[in-house]
Amino acid sequence: MKLETMGSSNRQHTPESMIVARSEELVDRFLDAIWMERGLSKNTLGAYRADLMMLSRGLAAGGKVIDKAEKSDLLEFIAQRVEMGAKPRSTARQLSSFRRFFRYIMREGLRDTDPTAEIEMPRIGRSLPMSLSEDEVDSLLNAPNTDEPLGHRDRAMLELLYATGLRVSELINLKQSQINFNQGVLRIIGKGDRERLIPLGEEAQHWIKEFVNGPRMEILLERQTDYLFPTRRGDRMTRQAFWHIIKRYAEKAGVRRTLSPHSLRHAFATHLLNRGADLRVVQMLLGHSDLSTTQIYTHVARERLKELHAEHHPRG
After folding, report:
1. How many domains are contained in the chain?
2. What is the pLDDT of residues 109-167, one digit of tens each?
3. 104, 154, 182, 298 - which has most CB atoms within 10 Å?
4. In terms of pTM, does the model score above 0.85?
5. Does the annotation mark 167 as catalytic?
């Protein structure tokens, strides 16, 4: 057993090294079990071992054996790996290793809960649409005719999307009571009924205030609705209607990229990261429950920066 074959130096007998040894023992028991059950290749077993021992060493620094890891420990580990440049595929493989290990630990009766159960897998193969450049966003924002009430509404919607990274469903369901102009924040109840406060930039506040104080009343006439951005019938806008609005303005603005209803959300995240924003701040603003979902934006941001570098330094 590996615990007995450790070296005899004092350094080897620190509490941290003993925790790593205990974790290693559990990992080896797990690997023996799945090898017996499934006859996995040496390469696959080696990959599992590398993933689990990397996690074990990270946990040992905090005085925790691997079988005692909580969801927050795993998310912290993933966050650190992402910040060091780990790709979604690598994160997905590690999560898969962790899931198998903790299912084995539960089967052995060593714990009652699976800390990986509520951690989302990063999206692989479902790449985000190519992010809009800042110039393309400017062209899109300037496309609506703001002399018309509906055009003013559309400009305010686009400005708000780009300023906050809202999901389209959150935008069309937005009520006036969710905006606090005094504090300059937007209160959103997102997926899973999770609440988040998002700061509103001056430009977005300007367009929303202008819209509420005039064009919105012209659209509604005598009708009443709590929704911030009503249609000319006084109803809540549908996702499909907003998608048509985006496509129409993209065509008018001469944006050649393939857009989706979430293109401005993607641009919001990518441009923040390009300007040095912390990934965890972007995660919070987007309302992602796990950092692994946000991490794909780091890849998009890096690719966009490479493109810009190539444009400005064609021989570089």
Report:
1. 2
2. 999 999 988 787 766 555 555 678 888 889 999 999 999 999 999 999 999 988 888 88
3. 154
4. no
5. yes
